[in-house]
Sequence to fold (333 residues):
Amino acid sequence: MSKKLKILLCSDDDGLMVKTIKSVVSNRGFQENIVLVRDQHDVSTISKEIVDADIVYPDKAMITREMIMSAEKVKLFQCGTGYDTIDLWAVIERKIPVCNMPGITAQSVAEHAMYLVLALAKNGRDYGQEMKDGKWNRGVGIELAGKTLGLIGFGNIGRIHARIAHGFGMKIIAFRRNMERGNEGLDFVDIVDFDCLLEKSDIVSILLPLTKHGSCKTERLIGKKELEKIGGAGLGWLINTSRGAVISEDDLIESLENGIVKKAALDVYETEPLSEYSKLRKLPNVVLTPHIAGDTKEALIRRYTLIAENAIKVMNNEKPQYIVKELQSIFDD
Fold:
């Protein structure tokens, strides 16, 4: 007799999610009950469905202390790359594992970050659409070869981003918290300190996770002072495919309005979805995408397969993969 398993997915189904998870779970002898809450801001429905869920995939939904304490059956909170939407103090108290997905979307995010660099180099213009609209508006872009790309963060995404940019002939510098790890064999990358990176880069690309507490806090890492340094160096461009709250959005808007940071390309925002009234939507020197850097077919299949495999592990009383660092000591063998 198959075992029952309720998985709460706070996400819209892109056509791959439920299909992939069902296939993996059912093939391992589980009778799955998959509940989709498509509106990640629907607190009422999430609060109701989480009560008897075994597995929760929050995606970008906020999982509060009250939700966690009411979820009597939950055995796993499976997040994506970031896990800043979960009340970690509450899950530590409950001793529920929280897992993320390091590396799962790295290739896709790195490619998207490079796409944003290229978009800025071509003036942030959709020439293809302009041509279809009957226009013939030419423009002068810049070459990326010889320009310095500064990577804030040098994990899985940063290393791939570096290799791609190196292929364009760019110079690469990077900042990482653990500088002793060096460039990990990528001899074309120089590891530098934080201020040096801000002051020497033509283009700064943010690739850090959002951390709100502790010595490695990254929330509002980039504020007015840092933006002035970025704007005063080289091209003065900024790319963010990390999390919106790593940058002080108000300071960034002011910087862009005053021509300090010359251009920015953003995939993430302090509040998502981005308000239709946001000043960012109206600035001519900004390229915006709707938090899609990690959303490729290949990355999504890897993501959904991991959700299913970790669900099976915890249901079989096994340790899931990629428990986040704040909880690792609780679940050490």
Remarks:
- The chain has two domains: 3-103+296-331, 106-288.
